[in-house]
Amino acid sequence: MNIDLSALPTTIDSLHLGLGISAALFLVLFLTKKRLSAPQATRENNIEASAAAEKTVEKAVEPVVKEEPLKEATPEAALQLLTLLQQDARFIDFLQEDLSGYCDADIGAAARVVHEGSKKTLDTYFTLEAIRSEDEEMRISLPEGFNASQIRLTGNVVGSAPFNGTLIHKGWKVTRVNLPKLAPEHDASIIAPAEIEL
């Protein structure tokens, strides 16, 4: 590329002079603005850093909410209930029996004994109440804040309460437990001792 220096103007007219001065002023303004905005940015960063530090301090000062561990179920009560069901209803014997060799009438007769004995055990050691008092298959409405541990929603569950639906099962809750006390040396894992006739 060849530049012809003889084509450059030898005199500067007022228009080009004004454009040159404007460009120089814009350059000076641009440079000074950068210098002024740098401390401003630093000041904003410092403000953000101090706000983050305050939040960290607040978190450190907040009381630590300790999650309670899950309750561990003691097996003694469950084993005791199995023992009572075995005594009154031959419950374990019935469940452990291979029923494939029996006719339906024999199974039905055995189920009646298990049912009557199991009901006797429940009535003796537990008080049961229905969770809902309405009749099953009835339409009901659940308000906001209903007890989700007592009511399980099924079907197309979308949105939030109030919910309208059909009561499929009333549910059960235990209001009283009166299991017998166990002696300290009692082995609760023995549901039914082996019987030997002499």
SSE blueprint and pairings:
Elements: H1 14-61, H2 75-89, H3 91-96, H4 104-125, E1 126-130, E2 139-142, E3 163-166, E4 172-177
Antiparallel strand pairs: 1-4, 2-3
Helix pairs in contact: 2-4
General description of the model:
The chain is mainly alpha-helical and 198 residues long. Among the domains are: 34 residues; 103 residues, no CATH class. The chain is elongated, with a radius of gyration of 42 Å. The longest helix has 48 residues. The protein is built from 4 helices and 4 strands.
What structural keywords apply?
198 residues; mainly alpha; two-stranded antiparallel ribbon; two-stranded antiparallel sheet; 46% helix; 10% strand; elongated
